[in-house]
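Hello again,

I reread your note about wanting to compare the complex against the isolated chains. To keep things tidy I'm splitting this into two emails, and this first one only covers the full assembly. Below are the input lines as submitted, including protein chains and any nucleic acid or small-molecule components. They are followed by the predicted structure of everything together. The single-chain runs will come separately.
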Amino acid sequence: MKALPDNMHVLTGSYALDALDAQERAEFERHLQHCPSCQAEVRGLRETAARLAIARAAQPPAQLEQRVLAATYRTRQLPPQAGGRLRWDLRQTRLARLFAGWLAADQSDSSQPHRSVRRSDRGRGTGWSKSWLRSPRLVGAVAAASVAVAVGLGITQVSTQHQLDSAHATSAAIAKVLDAPDARIEAAPATAGGAVTVVVSDLQREAVVTTSGMPPLSASRIYQVWVMSSSGARSVGLLSSTDHVGQLLASGVRPGDQIGITVEPSGGTSHPTTTPVATVPLTT
Amino acid sequence: MHHMNRPEIRAARPDPGPAEGEAQDLAFLLAQVARGDHQAFEAVYGQLAGPVYGVVRQVLRDPAQSEEVAQEVLLEVWRSASRFDPARGSGVAWVLTMAHRRAVDRVRSENAGSRREQKVASETATEYDDVADTVETSLEGQRARRCLDSLTDLQGESIKLAYYGGYSYPEVAQLLGVALGTVKTRIRDGLIRMRDCMGVMA
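Full-complex prediction:
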């Protein structure tokens, strides 16, 4: 069931009522990550659906209460998520500032093909203002990437429990990078369109790779993300085959490594087989 | 540039308005539950067991199975209370979304075969109305019923079949003999109308 993004929005209602099949639910949840207005609508419609449940409240069997209460004494509770709400808000603010600095910096003094802003010199220009940076489309793409980062951190209630657990693990790891005192943003355009944004922490040796606006590929191809160093390349992961976006965590990165993206056969490969369509040096 | 401004992202999200006092109470209780407070959990149980059991039973019908799923959901509330985030919605919605989702998942996994299709073909659109032992409906429940009644027939039927019947929208379309696109639209329009009718949006 291939719905165009435009048709996706109308699914907010069916999604809120759990009336999508598993595949469409997954597709919609992917769409949701990039659609703040859908998120807002889903949230209101969920509250509405809850009232439909309240309208059908029924007396539970008498023994249920004792059974549930007894079970609570035998059941360990989940720990709070790494980074609760307050930290989340803080992170949002930091991230927004980081991106604001990134976008504001436009002193052109070099032809290096990527651009970097670190927390310490946020708002001060650090090179690289190729004309594509000024293009509203690219600015939009980068803004979308930042929203994707935000959404990756925040929107978890929309998933099934299983997806939730893995999303939590990933977003906790990503959150750690964004929270790092030395977090900085590196970014570069991809040769055929789109952009790659990397938030990197040298202290943690981890990087969060976010892409936006990558051109579609044929079904037999996929974008693969790599950490490239002088000793070779290792795979970080694949971008989604449906919308070519993704947010991936690269561990064990060092200053001087590059994040690279290549086009590979759909299952991915162990080594890059094509020239990268984008590279982002992790300068120090 | 404004895309990444946090306050604006926030403004795009509606704040759930209803039963503000009660909702805050529940959020407070859930925070206590997250710290292992059994008494707070009893209070949460008192507030939500009726709607949880009611909606699960509405979807599953079978009392024994409904009890089992309701128990799972309520225990999940205990287990994952620390994951509830009041910034993302009310406690009521958090719990009842979980309850409905679980009931529906149970139906779909069990009826993956042909039994479900036969049921879809034979069931009439009125069956979801026949819940037994509905408790004294709260004011909020009464309001929801009134708002549901104010929808057009097609909106109301679509929503009831999807939510109370636990049918997917293609199944709803089949039951009502209308196009898929029509059902998707009616469900959304109807829910939006209900939302506005109940003042869910602040």
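For quick reference: Chain B has a mean pLDDT of 81.

B.
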